[in-house]
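Thread: "does anyone have the structure for this chain?"

Original post by V.I.:
We have the sequence but no experimental structure in hand. Need at least a predicted one for the grant figures.
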Amino acid sequence: MSLFSLRGLKALFRSTLSQTREFEYVAYLHAQRTLFRIRLNIAIHAQDASRLLQKRAIKIFVGGDSAFSHIEQLLYQARHTVIIQMFIWKDDTTGRRMASVLLDIANRGVKVIVRKDAVGDFFEYDHDFLGTRHSKETFWKHFWHHSHITIEHEKRNNHAKVYVIDGHTLLITGMNIADEYRYAWHDYLVELQGTHFAESFLTENPTLCPEDAKIIMNTATNKPMREVFMTLIQKAQESIVLEHAYFCDMDTVDLLAKRCNEGVRVTIIIPGNADFQHHGNMIAVGQLLTQTLGKAQVFLYPGMFHGKLLLVDHKTLFIGSTNILPSSLDSMGEVNVLLRGKFTSVLRKVRETLRSNILKSTSLSSPPQFWWVGRLLAFLRL
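Reply from O.Q.:
Generated one for you, tokens below.
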């Protein structure tokens, strides 16, 4: 990557200087039109439409290659409509492969809608998605000008990563579309089968979901993510396990310390070498260890992972795109799913993965020491 690439500098300026567009009413109408089209297509295409409307199943996939392979399989099975909300989409092997899959299904008549947030361009630099728009490559020309592919590229501060397939399959993940998410970093994908899940996301209406499987969203008009996180931590009775790539919100640290000192077992897993916010992560876990006199368990996973999950009392899972950062909890668009109780196979797989990750990790028993440079880097979110 060239530090002074013209394409990269354009991506940086575009992500930081462009105006944020929220247009809440227009977005609402767009969602309603999309939902109507999906319902109509289900009625037209599905001989077993009633079964699709009533179907309900939830699965979890661990690891980028497994998740992306499953995403591609579901996309190839799409019959009429695919919607993708994405924060980062790089022009690399994974990004091109995803575009190729979408071209394939568009060629047989599937309507593809891509909603790419311009804020994510900052992290794409000279592999930015929008930079492919004027590419001379035949592949990208076909992608951008295909009659069945609609691409919305606007700055909406939406950090969510979501796929909606045929109105009955909703995929929620922390994985962006880029090589590191597929091949290098540990992360999760949750598949929710059922039209009520897709409708809940498209209409930003969590009441459409059952109580034991709730879609929680930070939207332009409602930001419940911090409240949900804090409530789950506050109501924990036995244990809290938090595996997060970016753990820098001090209000969350204070509440975790309080619960730990009240006798709840608190376990934190963070990357040993985060790509972003590393010093902030280390200062946060240092404060947690100080406030709990070392009672909290902190583990440093080797290298980098990108997962974002909270497991409470072994039976409540909160997972998705939300980081433990003030911007993520309070202001950016995010999508998580809250699963309670009876999803035993999902919870079992998560618990097994967490145990495996802890065994790979190094325990941190005392607060890390930083000179002023480290604290400055934490302040700069580096």
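V.I.: this helps a lot. The domain at 6-209 is CATH 3.30.870.10 (Endonuclease; Chain A).
O.Q.: and The chain has a mean pLDDT of 88.
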